[in-house]
Amino acid sequence: MTVQTGDQAPDFTLPIAGGGTLTLSDAWRDSPVVLVFFPLAFSGRCQAELCEIRDNLALFEAASVRVIGVSVDSHFSLRAWAAEQGYGFDLASDFWPHGEVAGAYGVFLHEKGFADRASFLIDQHGVVRWSVVTDPGTSRALDAYRDALATL
After folding, report:
1. Is residue 51 annotated as part of the catalytic site, yes or no?
2. Which end of the chain is more exposed for a tag (fewer CB within 10 A), N or C?
3. Which entry of 14, 27, 36, 46 is annotated as an active-site residue?
């Protein structure tokens, strides 16, 4: 079942592209967080979505919201992709156990081996305040993030 607005966000610790690990509960204590699950690095639609976030990162920063991308790619792949694209936010690797975090959020597609496009806005108490889930072929609109951030 997909995590819903009002639910406690499942906590996790994952390796990140820049090295080291990221624990979600540590991140949300510092500021609200938007988790951006995406299917695969180096794919056209994922790159377009994350570049749109990169190009509009000031929108998230103005709301004091930390952006964390999550995919099943290895942290090595995510590191190369982040460097190539100049992403100014963390990319976390849900590589092993494969898709476990996406599964905890109810957005892992077992038959495909990757996550739906799903975003979750989490407040400083770890409560999901907003979410959007689309299939891998449907991009999320930046305006949806803008509307969600306005609720904080």
Report:
1. no
2. N
3. 46
